[in-house]
Design a protein that fits this description.
By secondary structure, this protein is mostly beta strands. About 0% of the residues lie in helices and about 55% in strands.
Length: about 200
C-alpha cells in the first residue's frame, strides 16, 4: 500500500494495458463506501488544487498526484476502467497517512505521594500507526516494577518508597519521525526517621 506523512506529496499510478479506448476514472471511496469521482480520462473532475493528474502515453499510465496530504486523505482510492454499462475493471490502493507520535496533554506531568501509597503514572499518545509507550528512569535506573524498561501506558507502583522519587521518562514511538518524550516527576513525602543512639 502507498503511504506518506502529513503535508508531503504522493503519486498513485494506474497503468492501462490493451484498454486505452475505454474511459478511465480515479475515484476516492468515502467512509460510507460511496465513490467520489476525482478524474475522468486525463482531466481532473475534483476542484481541489492539491490534486493533479498526469497521463503518460508511452506507458498508458494515469498518475494521480496529491500534494499537502491531510489526515482526511487517508483511505481507499480506485482506478476504474469502464468496459461496459455493468462491467468495469478496477485497481484499489489504500493510502496510509503516517503521523509522528505526539504525547497527549492529559498524560501525567508530576505526582506527589506519601511513602507506601500507590502511584500511577499514565502516558498516552496519538500518531499513525498507534505509538508504543515505554517508561524509563533517569540514568537508566531500575524501575520500581523491576528492569530498566516498562512497556505500557500506565506505570503502577503499588507502594512508593523514597528511593522511587525522581524523574521518569515516558517515550512514545511508532517508527515515524523521532520518538516523543515527556519527563514525569515523582515526589515522595516521608516521615523523618529517628535514630536511636542508645
Amino acid at each position: 500500500f502507498p503511504y506518506t506523512t502529513l503535508f508531503r506529496s504522493i503519486d498513485m499510478d494506474c497503468s492501462v494495458l490493451y484498454g486505452t479506448e475505454y474511459p478511465v476514472l480515479w475515484m476516492k471511496i468515502g467512509a460510507d463506501n460511496r465513490p467520489i469521482p476525482l478524474s475522468s480520462g486525463s482531466s481532473l473532475i475534483i476542484r481541489d488544487n492539491r490534486f493533479a493528474l498526469r497521463y503518460d502515453t508511452a506507458s498508458a499510465t494515469y498518475t494521480l498526484q496529491l500534494k499537502d496530504v491531510q489526515r482526511s486523505d487517508e483511505g481507499r482510492y480506485e482506478c476504474q476502467i469502464i468496459v461496459g454499462i455493468n462491467n468495469k475493471v478496477t485497481e484499489d490502493l489504500y493510502l496510509r497517512v503516517l503521523e509522528p507520535p505526539v504525547i497527549n496533554d492529559n498524560s501525567t506531568r508530576s505526582v506527589m505521594k506519601n511513602q507506601y501509597e500507590s502511584a500511577t503514572l499514565e502516558c498516552t499518545a496519538k500518531g499513525s500507526p498507534q505509538p508504543r509507550i515505554e517508561w524509563r528512569r533517569e540514568n537508566n535506573a531500575v524501575l520500581p516494577t523491576g528492569g530498566i524498561i516498562y512497556k505500557g501506558t500506565k506505570l503502577k507502583i503499588h507502594s512508593v518508597k523514597k528511593e522511587d522519587r525522581g524523574t521518569y521518562f515516558c517515550v512514545a514511538d511508532n517508527g515515524v519521525g523521532s520518538p516523543a518524550k515527556r519527563h514525569v516527576a515523582l515526589d515522595v513525602e516521608f516521615s523523618p526517621g529517628f535514630v536511636d543512639n542508645q
